[in-house]
Specification:
Blueprint: E1 3-5, H1 10-18, E2 21-26, E3 36-41, E4 45-49, E5 52-58, H2 64-71, E6 74-80, E7 88-99, H3 103-109, E8 118-132, H4 148-156, H5 159-169
Antiparallel strand pairs: 1-8, 2-3, 2-6, 4-5, 5-8, 6-7, 7-8
């Protein structure tokens, strides 16, 4: 049965940290537009408190999460156990995207390992924590982390080329919402 929790307990935090994969869901405001669900992995998520998490957003072909957060702030995380006892944890909250080069990015980036293609840190205040059974989730094992992002960044010209890529490819979401923007001067 599903259960709501007042916060991310240490037991839930341990479960979240043990997962190799998590999903992030966002949507534009109103009835139109596309709901987005993105898989995330590696060491890109940290628990900053009982009601606060952050993850390192890497440059990609889309900008949906950041565009949706800029528009309405809503975000949901889902963590599924693929090994061991079945369980699903969902975290609902309001997030802010702090782009690379901003003071907030610099402060939060210290929580993450250096990774190629860093674009932003997504900082989320959690307002709902829930668990459910996960009986329908299959058992799977991690074979290995992927390293394609490092190769992709290098093929694009390395970190110096990423800013231009983001301006060209991440300017707007698939629904035309404002996406990438550089941090304000002096931030």
């Amino acid at each position: 049965m599903g259960q709501e929790h007042p916060e991310i307990s240490e037991k839930l935090a341990d479960f979240i940290r043990a997962q190799h994969l998590f999903f992030v869901a966002t949507a534009p405001a109103g009835p139109g537009g596309h709901v987005n669900v993105s898989p995330k992995g590696r060491d890109t998520l940290v628990i900053l408190g009982a009601r606060r998490v952050a993850y390192l957003d890497l440059t990609g072909s889309g900008i949906e999460t950041i565009a949706h957060l800029r528009e309405n702030g809503r975000i949901t995380f889902m963590f599924c156990s693929f090994e061991g006892k079945s369980k699903i944890v969902r975290l609902h909250g309001r997030g802010t995207a702090h782009p690379i080069g901003s003071a907030a990015f610099d402060d939060l980036a210290a929580h993450f390992p250096e990774m190629p293609g860093r674009r932003a840190v997504i900082d989320v205040e959690i307002d709902r924590v829930s668990t459910s059974c996960g009986f329908g989730v299959p058992r799977m094992q991690l074979v290995a982390e992927r390293d394609e992002i490092a190769q992709w960044v290098e093929r694009k010209g390395g970190e110096p080329a990423m800013e231009g890529y983001r301006h060209r490819k991440n300017a707007t979401s698939i629904d035309g919402l404002a996406g990438w923007s550089s941090p304000p001067a002096g931030s």
